[in-house]
Amino acid sequence: MTCLLVCFPGAPRPCEEAIRKEVLLDAALGRRVAELCASASEPPSLNTVFRTLASEDILDLPPGGGLYCKATVIAEAYSQFCQASRQRCVKGQKGAEEPTGALSVSALHLEA
């Protein structure tokens, strides 16, 4: 498959304010995913996390696609949380430290 991108000098540039809002939204979604996973007694499924987020009123979602446009951001945050959780449990089993069950939101190193 080939993709050809043609850029014209007079084309509009991305708005800095929109880029900043996008970064803040991604960070907020990542933190919310971590909160949902950390607050559960056992890790929820990705579908459960997505449905929970869909039921919440989240500001600055992209028009026309809403939360579905952010599915990859949500999936990445969920994957990072699950990976960090597994690593923590493995360390606890090796005797380095005890597993604590839920991780804090800061375990994902998400920026605001």
From TrEMBL:
Enzyme class: hydrolase
The keyword Translocase is annotated on this UniProt entry: no
Superkingdom per UniProt: Eukaryota
Record field: catalytic activity: O-phospho-L-threonyl-[protein] + H2O = L-threonyl-[protein] + phosphate
Residues covered by the Protein serine/threonine phosphatase 2C C-terminal domain: 2-78
Cofactors demanded by this protein: Mn(2+)
GO molecular function, a single term: magnesium ion binding
Family: Belongs to the PP2C family.
Annotated protein name in UniProt: protein-serine/threonine phosphatase
Source organism (scientific name): Bos taurus
